[in-house]
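thought: user wants a sequence for this fold. calling inverse folding tool.
action: design(structure=
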């Protein structure tokens, strides 16, 4: 039995998929600029479980029927379109800025390199794991675009479980490499949600 979906407009669906192309383009560019597989890199392959859970959470946000019955200029469709632009645009911006700040340090699987640096600039001055916040924004924009608000009840906890696995592994790797410097950074900088005020 499929979860109920809210009505959406065809414009907001196309808007999301247009922005999603931009999101994936940024991800591919970041991958091409990353340091690749350094032979003396220290890896933790258990982070792959986190990747799977995050992907499952995002997939669940998009799973189910789509009811494209809203007139594109209706107030609900316009509000949802604005939300998509803000959420997905935020995801793209955050991902691009984070990947740029990380440079060769960025990788999909958690690892530290022999020449790894502790990045504390750009988005990393506000939160330790901004890419995961960007992915959460992407998940939310997908749900809004397809009218899958009910799916968020399951999708968000699964995504957050994967994120918790990944952040703990990455924090441990960085603490091992940087010691007190990382511990000081972790004390003053939240993991995912920036401090307000």
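)
observation: tool returned 197 residues.
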């Amino acid at each position: 039995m499929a979860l109920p979906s809210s009505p959406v407009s065809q414009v907001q669906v196309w808007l999301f998929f247009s922005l999603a192309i931009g999101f994936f383009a940024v991800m591919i560019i970041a991958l091409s600029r990353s340091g690749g597989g350094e032979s003396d890199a220290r890896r933790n392959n258990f982070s792959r479980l986190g990747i799977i859970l995050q992907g499952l959470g995002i997939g669940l946000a998009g799973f189910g029927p789509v009811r494209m019955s809203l007139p594109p200029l209706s107030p609900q469709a316009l509000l949802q379109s604005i939300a998509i632009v803000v959420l997905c645009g935020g995801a793209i911006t955050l991902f691009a800025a984070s990947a740029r700040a990380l440079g060769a340090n960025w990788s999909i699987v958690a690892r530290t390199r022999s020449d790894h640096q502790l990045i504390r600039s750009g988005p990393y001055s506000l939160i330790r794991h901004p890419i995961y916040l960007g992915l959460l924004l992407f998940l939310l924009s997908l749900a809004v675009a397809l009218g899958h608000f009910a799916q968020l009840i399951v999708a968000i906890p699964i995504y957050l479980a994967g994120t918790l696995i990944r952040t703990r592994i990455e924090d441990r790797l960085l603490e091992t490499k940087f010691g007190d410097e990382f511990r000081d950074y972790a004390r003053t900088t939240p993991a995912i949600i920036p401090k307000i005020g």
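thought: summarizing for user.
answer: Here is the designed sequence. Residues 7-34+41-188 form a domain with the Four Helix Bundle (Hemerythrin (Met), subunit A) fold (CATH 1.20.120.1630).
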